Amino acid sequence: MTAQSVEQAAPTRRERLRAQTATEIKQVARQHLVAAGNVAGVQLRSVARDVGMTAPALYRYFPGLDELVLSMTVDLFDELIGEMEAARDSVEDEVASQLLAVSRAFRSWSVAHPAEFAMIFGTPAVSFGHGPVNECEEAGARFGTVFAQLFIRLWNEHPFAAPTDGDLGDTLSAEIAPYHEWLTVSLAPSMPKGAVIVFLEAWVKLYGVVALEVFGHLQWAIPDGEPLFERTLKTLSSDFGFPERYRPPKA
Amino acid sequence: MTAQSVEQAAPTRRERLRAQTATEIKQVARQHLVAAGNVAGVQLRSVARDVGMTAPALYRYFPGLDELVLSMTVDLFDELIGEMEAARDSVEDEVASQLLAVSRAFRSWSVAHPAEFAMIFGTPAVSFGHGPVNECEEAGARFGTVFAQLFIRLWNEHPFAAPTDGDLGDTLSAEIAPYHEWLTVSLAPSMPKGAVIVFLEAWVKLYGVVALEVFGHLQWAIPDGEPLFERTLKTLSSDFGFPERYRPPKA
DNA sequence: CGATGTTCGCGAACGCTGTTCACCCTGGCG
DNA sequence: CGCCAGGGTGAACAGCGTTCGCGAACATCG
Q1: Which of B217, B234, B235 best tests the A interface by mutation, with the highest count of A CBs <10 A?
Q2: I need a surface site. Which of A150, A184, A250, B193 has the fewest CB within 10 A?
Q3: Chain A: residue nearest B235 by CA?
Q4: How many helices (H) and strands (E) does chain A have?
Q5: What is the mean pLDDT of chain A?
Q6: Which parts of chain A fold into alpha helices (H)?
Q7: What was the pLDDT predicted at A133?
Q8: A223 at the B interface (CB within 8 A)?
Q9: pLDDT tens digits, chain B, 251 residues: what are they?
Q10: Which residues 18-57 of B have a C-beta within 8 angstroms of A?
């Protein structure tokens, strides 16, 4: 068992070269993605040409184009998660500041990589269902956890105003019950349903303002989305009970 | 001049048949869109086959596939606008009730037509720029006007709490200035910048909750988006100063 | 009515796509 | 050294959007 683990950590050279080629393929595909602006720009033949191979050779590394795109999507999630965690760890160990930093990192990455944002947060490329998409949903869950952990910590350290179970209404209370149950047994033992709903609503506002900006659906009113985003952060800071912790971005 | 207008109103029979064929093409394309779930499902050859023609024949009606999709997008906007206006006119002539009805119509159409929603509110199919996309942006502006007119009427009849120009900050105030200027001279003479920002933020929340539901990015927490959407409407009703006007949906 | 010119639809073709297959060549193992 | 699994190639297939030339149907005018 341990020997297997060691062999997994130190793979044979062919496996190393193979993994290296796979990452190079994905890097080139990423370049084509940003150059074209959408996922339609990543094509098997052109990607293969830029890595110095022919199209059929890529089938040694990916079962097909869809799986390449899927693998890219997972990588993009991990990259975004990394940026958010780096931002979180680069500020003082205080939950409000970390929430602001993570939120800003989310927007910064999104506006800097609109094509990638569209891949992971826009229309799901492959229809959602039980299949290899799970790997992608799994990455999305990891992404959500970055926010969720901070919210849980915020709730534990500085409980914010949240609706009671009675305020939620029966239908919403029933809808959130499974996720609340999972959250209770896994991450947040003492978080009420109302706090989970407030967390969801905060994510909705964050996603809404960033998605609208990235998709260009806000340009008819405001050319740059940052001021509105910062105002959203300010409002959220008040909603969560730490208006004094809000500071304009470092820039 | 009037004779020309009459001739425009009563086109020759060839023109009528031509227009009829064009709409039939778009209807079939719509069917393929919903069947496939995304815009990639609308293909020239298959659409032509279902209308009883061959692919090159479609070029007599549309310059290419992109223009067909663009024309479909405009039609979808108009359809959604029609649903929203119908909902607005089907309730009592009271602005708060009409806002609720229009918002619910927006969500209902969106969740009932996810593929269409993705076409007009997701990643812009064709890159935004100065070109035939203007026709599409124009339709988007008409869509926004349905909401805007109601908000303006709400502001005139029952002014809601809005930040002052000082509260907005210089950058956001400068960003919104052009749109605020256009709004002032065209639709709302006495609306302050703060009210426009509140309007934008309400649209952000509405778009966020609906887009997340339609794209399936909320299913990890709640299977059905309606309760959360209704809670959003309830919150917005309070934000806009008419919490007593909120009523659960008729259903 | 007959001639004319415009419109419409079709078949063939071009270049492109993702994908499959048979073949070859090379690197690592027994 | 011999072998063989694995990486890479070229040809091929089906399908895509698009272009072109031709024939037939249509509306219009003499």
Answers
A1: B217
A2: A250
A3: A201
A4: 11, 0
A5: 92
A6: 2-9, 13-36, 44-50, 65-90, 95-112, 114-121, 133-157, 165-168, 170-186, 193-214, 226-239
A7: 61
A8: yes
A9: 444 444 344 677 788 999 999 999 999 999 999 999 999 999 999 999 999 999 999 999 999 999 999 999 999 999 999 999 999 999 999 999 999 999 999 999 999 999 999 999 988 754 444 455 688 889 999 999 999 999 999 999 999 999 999 999 999 999 999 999 999 999 989 899 999 999 999 999 999 999 999 999 999 999 999 999 999 999 999 999 999 999 999 87
A10: 37-38
Task: Dihedral sign for Cα A86, A91, A92, A98, please.
Answer: negative
Using CB atoms within 10 Å of the CB of residue B99, give its burial: 0 to 12 exposed, 13 to 18 middle, 19+ buried: buried
Q: What is the pLDDT of residue B4?
A: 41
Instruction: Give the span between the Cα atoms of B80 and B249, in whole angstroms.
Output: 19
Shortest CA distance to B198 belongs to which of B227, B143, B240?
B240
Under a CB-based contact definition with an 8 Å cutoff, are residues B136 and B165 in contact? no
Check: CB of residue A44 under 8 Å from CB of residue A58. yes
Question: What are the tokens at A67?
Answer: 């799986």
Tell me the two tokens of residue A12: 């044979």
Q: Residue B232 has which token pair? A: 């959003």
- Give the whole-angstrom CA distance, residue B35 versus residue A203: 31
* Residue A112 and residue A56 in contact, taking contact as beta carbons nearer than 8 Å: no
| Cα–Cα separations (whole angstroms), residue B31 to A105, B25, B41, B43, B50 | 40, 10, 9, 11, 10
The tokens of A79 are what?
């990259």
Does pTM surpass 0.70? yes
Q: What is the mean pLDDT of residues A165-177?
A: 96
Better-scored residue on pLDDT, A250 or B34: B34
- How far is it, in rounded angstroms, from Cα B132 to Cα A212? 21
Tokens of A65: 């184009």
Cβ(B34)–Cβ(B109) under 8 Å?
Answer: no
The reply to whether B129 Cβ lies less than 7 angstroms from strand C is: no
Question: Residue A155's Cα: distance from chain center in Å?
Answer: 22
Considering only CB atoms, B123 lies closest to which of A38, A128, A207, namely A38
What is the structure's pLDDT at A10? 64
